[in-house]
Amino acid sequence: MIEVQDVRLDPETRRTWRGTEEVVLSRKEFDLVRALMERAGDIVSRDELMRDVWGTTFWTSSKTIDVHLGWVRRKLGDDSRHPRLITTIRGRGLRFETEDRTG
């Protein structure tokens, strides 16, 4: 079980929860969240995400990650304008925050 903030992810059963509510994610959405949660607090580059989640070293589409990230944020209830879970680090990648910094 991987737990960061109030998100729990079970890699064995491929199930995800935010607080007490289960969140149903598609295969790629789950893999994206897992890749970020496994390295919570660290910036994960888009190249690393394309390799780890999509299994490719080339860009299938520059918007692939953004589209999936949008779906994930919506399902987890993370406001894309003021994210508390997954933040975009411009020019570097994405980071799953280890704590809510809105305080």
Automatic annotation (TrEMBL):
Q: What is this protein identified as?
A: Winged helix-turn-helix domain-containing protein
- Membrane spanning segments where? none
The chain positions of domain OmpR/PhoB-type read 1-98
Tell me which residues form the DNA-binding region.
1-98
- Gene3D superfamilies, per the entry: Winged helix-like DNA-binding domain superfamily/Winged helix DNA-binding domain
Q: Which UniProt keywords apply?
A: DNA-binding, Phosphoprotein, Two-component regulatory system
InterPro entries attached here?
OmpR/PhoB-type_DNA-bd, Sig_transdc_resp-reg_C-effctor, WalR-like, WH-like_DNA-bd_sf
